[in-house]
Design goal:
Elements (H helix, E strand, L loop, with lengths): L3 H26 L2 H30 L8 H34 L1
Length: about 100
Amino acid sequence: MDEQTPFQIISYAGDSFSKMMEALQEAKKGNFDKVDPLFLEAEQLLNQAHRVQTDLIVKEANGKTNDLSVLLIHAQDTLMNTILSKTLIKELIEIHQSQREQKI
């Protein structure tokens, strides 16, 4: 594993989380036309992070060991938390949208 791999996971996952939070903020303001594009971008970034992780797993499955480092652990933790956040943030956005529709 090269040194950049954990940084790629952290960067993609972190950017994805930021886009999801931005989408949630727009939902709170009632700007639902901005939510889907932001969430789509977040999902694309999350997919990139997941691809980098999958490449690591495939290499290890093929016998190439990865050095375990605090940075790699942090990268995995960041990715896992972003994946979990995606589910929760989607639910929160749906709640905001539902509340807005009930007021109309």
